[in-house]
Design goal:
The protein is built from 3 helices and 6 strands; from the N terminus they run βββαββαβα. It is of the alpha+beta class. The strands form 2 sheets. The chain has a 4-stranded antiparallel beta sheet with strand order 4-5-3-6. Helix 1 (27-39) runs antiparallel to helix 2 (78-88).
Amino acid sequence: MPLLLMKGRLKMPSSKPVIITTTAPDRAEAEKIGGLLLSEQLAACVQYDEIRSQYVWDGEIRTDSEIRITIKTTRNRYGKIEKLIRQHHSYDCPQILMVTVSRGFKPYLAWLRNASGQGG
């Protein structure tokens, strides 16, 4: 997919595949968020991994077990995905990060776009 030049800046096509990651405190919350993303066709696939996180919060180093949620979708779904996560997440400040997929197996990327409601 070519990048578009808009007002002197490069713009990524809206149906460009992306990976969004967030975390949840437990599997139940993670699967609730993932199920909603899938049922609303905001994601093609959601994966769950048990992880151990260390981070600074309120000036203290903390360590927690969490569930990492990996969301496979398209760029133009980001706003709705962020809103859904924030509405159903128990954290005050959840990690919500989007990474562009620069390359991938073409049939898989076509499936991803189609399964996340992008068609074509």
